[in-house]
Write a structure and sequence with these properties.
- With 276 residues, this protein is an alpha/beta fold.
- Helix content is 38%, strand content 13%.
- The longest helix is centred in the middle third of the chain and has 15 residues.
- The chain is globular and about 55 Å long.
Length: 276
């Protein structure tokens, strides 16, 4: 087990289970150095998005690294104001240009924009057929969005990236995705460090001589969740993924499950301001 440990997606593509998220990493030097240092530490999965405004820095860091492109799993996403069939094709082309890449490993519909996400996904299917994305999926989709999509999709999404951390464990989403062989990926996996002082995390961190962040990432890893903790600091990047030398027991996992309060940091997908 290591940072190169992968899960197999439903189309056969392998995705490193632990990666680096770059949401709110500043474009330019900050994101460039964050990605460069993560790759030096052994990360092989980088998650960005059109919205983040930092695809250029991500692409340049990958290009300047000593790691072959084929060994790095790169995700990006189409933003809400870029959705629709033709708009998505154009947005994807812009993302590729910014990343300086011929393809991405995973392309996601960032949010289920009402009246648009089906057409957007159809564009993703064509991008996939053209070999420009090795896999396609969605983000922030509730089960009812997935049900609507699965009725018409010709290519099943491989993943659904959602807000997921100990206080928002997304059982209904996870159960639906497991039933349909769609992997769940966590954004804000550390809950933005808002409750590291929670008694359960403190207890398990002390028990395993680890930090609360490491307990959380390990819990997600053992739960089969793809996780992308974000940090622009190399020492924190190292700390976040120092999870392969301990294991949570069944009792530990039950204690983690008890932390679920259905408490969100971001908006619920059904209450998001889509501006439509």
């Amino acid at each position: 087990m290591s940072l190169t440990s992968t899960l197999k997606l439903n189309n056969g593509t392998e995705i490193p289970q632990v990666g680096l998220g770059v949401y709110k990493a500043e474009p330019g030097d900050e994101v460039y150095h964050a990605v460069k240092s993560a790759l030096e530490l052994g990360y092989r999965h980088i998650d960005t998005a059109s919205l983040y405004g930092n695809e250029e820095g991500v692409g340049q860091a990958i290009k300047d690294s000593n790691v072959p492109r084929k060994d790095i799993f790169v995700t990006t996403k189409v933003w809400n104001d870029e959705q629709g069939y033709d708009e998505t094709k154009a947005a994807f082309k812009r993302s590729l240009e910014r990343l300086q890449m011929d393809y991405v490993d995973l392309y996601l519909v960032h949010w289920p924009v009402p009246g648009k996400f089906i057409e957007t996904y159809k564009a993703l299917e064509d991008i996939y057929r053209d070999g420009k994305a090795k896999a396609i999926g969605v983000s922030n989709f509730e089960p009812h969005h997935l049900e609507e999509l699965l009725k018409v999709a010709e290519i099943k999404p491989v993943a659904n990236q959602v807000e997921l951390h100990p206080q928002l464990q997304q059982k209904a989403v996870r159960d639906f995705c497991e039933k349909h062989d769609i992997k769940v990926e966590a954004w804000a996996p550390l809950g933005k460090a808002r409750y590291f002082d929670h008694p359960v995390l403190q207890e398990l961190a002390a028990k395993h001589n680890k930090k609360p962040s490491q307990v959380i990432v390990r819990w997600q890893y053992q739960s089969g969740i793809i996780t992308i903790p974000k940090s622009v600091h190399q020492e924190r990047q190292q700390e976040n993924v120092d999870i392969f030398d301990f294991e949570l027991t069944t009792e530990d996992m039950d204690k983690m499950a008890s932390m679920d309060e259905n408490k969100r940091i971001g908006p619920h997908p059904d209450e998001f301001d889509y501006g439509v």
